[in-house]
Amino acid sequence: MKKEMKKNRFFKLFLQLCAIVLLGALVFCAAAGIKWYKVSKSGELVTVVSEPALRGGAVRLGEKFTLTAEFRLPWGVNPSLLTAEPADGSQLCAEPKFLLNKIRWGYTLWNGEVPLQAYAEGEIRDGRLNASFSNNQTLSLKLPAFRSNPLPVDSADLEIASRIDGKTASQLPLYAAIAAAVLLVIALAAYLIRRRWKRAARILSPWEAAVNAIHALIGRVRSGGLPLENSVAELTDIVRDYLEQRFRLRAGHQTTGEFLGDLERGGGGLSDAQRDFLKEFLSAADMVKFARLPADRALFENAAEKAERLVTETIPAEKNKKEQTP
Question: N or C terminus of the chain with fewer C-beta within 10 Å?
Fold first, then answer.
């Protein structure tokens, strides 16, 4: 009987303790719920407890390390997205992520972790860390600058960082083969085009080059691209160059008087009419160039026409026949 009474007392005491604990839990949950509601409706913002920092400010080349920022989130606000923009010389080893650190009355503490690796030596500049939260708040923090030190020459740890992952590396032979094939096609096309150009290319004779130059000069003068004063000098140079190549005269290195003197002595094999034209043409050109006489469009075109006639009339007979035969 006494044992049963003791058991009943113990059972009642246990029930009382359970009721107290349950009541306390209900009170705590109610208070927490009220606190959560007030905080969530208060519009309180996320704050930064600590920004990312690197102890010592230096790492070894290829070494993996983590920069951590701590955020204080009011109840009712959750982390959404964490992104990072490493500076040149460093890269992400994995995706940045949020980790719950502590739960406090009215707020929670979260760590934003950014795993990095240095793939270049020297000073690495600042990067950026962007954190977004469920209350549409975004915080941007600075990833601190640091120094990447080279590995010792005798170090057994020679795993250098690389921005090429395994999947990309496995496709390198395929990419190399495609690039080689493209280069081969380009080289073949360039060879064929060059060969075709060589076949089509033909060295112009002195008279063909002179006629083409005269036509081009007339076109430039008519379009206003060349002043009349300069056109007379260019026409003179065209005729002199032609005579030098055609008759092996020193026309390009003689004064007008010396050149005309050679013509008077029968040099060049020109007819009397052609010598007379050259005398008038070269003398008139000298007056425009040296005496600064104004040039006239009609006189220029007349001189250009006669210059072309001089060239065509002095084409060797056998060459003229071949060029006129289709």
Answer: C
Tokens of 319: 């060459």
Sign of the alpha-carbon dihedral angle for 238, 239, 243, 244: negative
Among 152, 181, 315, 144, CA closest to 242? 315
Q: Which amino acid is present at 172? A: L
Please check whether residue 263 is in contact with residue 224, taking contact to mean a CB–CB distance below 8 angstroms: no
The 10s digit of each residue's pLDDT in 298-324 is 777 888 888 888 888 888 776 554 554
Does the predicted TM-score (pTM) go above 0.70?
A: no
